[in-house]
């Protein structure tokens, strides 16, 4: 199997709010848009599809579900600079920068619909030689 592209599809209450968040703060561009639907793209990242909760294109048993328990993670080169940039743009930091024992440095923000975005930078874990 050859996978040509990766898309994350999220069901949210207010599609325009998430579109604004991802285009303004993460450099995504609107590729397609209609009532209750938006497809966003950005080089180097999976495509994002945003669907309004209740939209009829979803199977009936999924229509009322919202994106929950999903974390969209972006690996970046300079985590501290990205955190400072987002703060300066007025984005609330949901989880401040922290470093995990396995070498993952991260922080999180949350979009207006509750979609969690994690920014990650990989470092050599404490106590391990580079």
From TrEMBL:
Pfam families per UniProt: Glyoxalase (PF00903)
Domain VOC: 2-122
Single GO MF annotation: metal ion binding
Alphabetical GO biological process terms: L-methylmalonyl-CoA metabolic process
InterPro entries: Glyas_Bleomycin-R_OHBP_Dase, Glyas_Fos-R_dOase_dom, MMCE/EMCE_epimerase, VOC_core
Protein name (Swiss-Prot/TrEMBL): Glyoxalase
Highest rank taxon of the organism: Bacteria
SUPFAM superfamilies listed in its UniProt record: Glyoxalase/Bleomycin resistance protein/Dihydroxybiphenyl dioxygenase (SSF54593)
Native species: Streptomyces palmae
Key words of the record: Metal-binding
């Amino acid at each position: 199997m050859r996978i040509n592209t990766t898309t994350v599809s999220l069901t949210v209450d207010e599609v325009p709010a998430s579109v604004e968040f991802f285009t303004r703060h993460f450099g995504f561009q609107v590729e397609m848009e209609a009532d209750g639907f938006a497809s966003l793209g950005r080089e180097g990242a999976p495509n994002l599809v945003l669907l309004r909760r209740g939209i009829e294109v979803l199977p009936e048993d999924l229509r009322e579900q919202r994106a929950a328990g999903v974390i969209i993670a972006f690996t970046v080169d300079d985590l501290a600079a990205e955190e400072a940039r987002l703060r300066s743009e007025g984005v609330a930091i949901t989880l401040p920068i922290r470093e995990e024992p396995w070498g993952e440095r991260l922080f999180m923000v949350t979009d207006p619909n509750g979609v969690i975005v994690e920014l990650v930078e990989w470092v050599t874990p404490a106590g391990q030689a580079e």
